[in-house]
Amino acid sequence: MKKIICAALLILSGFGAFAQPKVVDKSGRKPDWVNGLEKEFIIVVGSGSTIDMAQNSALMLIKQNIVLSVADNVKAKSELKKEESSYNNSVSTFLEKYTSQVSSESGKVSYLQGVSLSNASEYYWEKQYDKSNKQTKYYYHIKYPFSEFEMKKLVSDFRMRDREMTENLDRLEAEAEIVTSIEEMEKNLSELKTLQEAFIDARKDKVNMVMARYQSILQSVELVEVDNSIGSLKFTLRLGNRTISTVKKPLVKSDCARINGTKNNVSDWEISYDYDNCYEDPENNILVSYRFGNANVSKKFFFDVAAKKAKMYVSEAVRFTKVDEDADNILSSSCSLTLIFKYDAPIIIEKVTLELQGVAPMIFEGINQSFSGKGNHDLKLNIATPLPKMVTTATGKSNPVLSGTIQYKNQTSGESLTYRLYNQKYSTNW
């Protein structure tokens, strides 16, 4: 019976030996500190299918240990309120990101960014082979110095960075009310996004509130017309009474006009366009669009292809009214013409010539009367030359007509034009 028990134990021990991975290579004699604990040192072991993977695993474990050590220290002294279950992970994420940044910026703390094998006190590795699954694995042991002094420096840097971020949040909140460029807003939103990922307490809610404010501002930006003369449009960006600048080039479209150029004048934008292919349509417009973050801002600027055109005509009878007379002549009189303007462009009446049959042409020079706007406009001329009653009267005539010209200038374009009166009806009160 004893022999059977001994045989069984030998078999079991053989299986146990068989199941143990075998050390097939190592860096040297196995040190006493491996898998142990020592004051002011971090001792870890990383594993991997290659020696490099095992080494990198060990270095990452050192970083995690440093971060968790600082997190525990910060947690013990901080007034931040957070549930126990999630606090360490949040602080760890925070510290790994921002303590790393502090380290790279100030160079005062070499940890996290500076953790490397060259800074280790000692290291030891083994290559093991597991016959049961025929796999080779490396184990990398590192003894890394981490003194109380270095931990305090890291905690100090963390607290300094935390204070800086709080101040930065306050600044970004205040700037929302005075920012004057789209680029500043987008830059501030980017900073807020970074803070949003960093904060682990109630400040995260404040970040979200400030971000929402900036998004609201971007959506509230309006495109306001500064000058809209045919062929050229000037507009600016406004937020209430605040002018907002941007270097972003707008997207400009039109159904009929050809866009020639877009110019940034800093205080406003200027768009030049060719409208030769546009008909006279009240819906003619230039569509200007921007995309600021998630906000789309656009506006249609309407234009009138006839804005610079000038055209006039006379349809009603020319009216002559006596002022003074004798038995045979109208010694002085006045003449009224109803001018009909087709377009809004201002016009200057410069010279009028009227020709009635049987009398010398009546020439009115240096008139220089200005009219503007579509519709009817009355032009009154004084006649000092005597007119024979019987020759000029319209009374009793079947079709009293006159001829002549009206010379005028388009004040918008400077173009000089002439309207010809031919068989134009007239009336007299004599």
Automatic annotation (TrEMBL):
Annotated signal sequence range: 1-19
UniProt feature coiled coil, ranges: 155-202
Keywords of this entry: Coiled coil, Signal
Record-given protein name: Plethodontid receptivity factor PRF
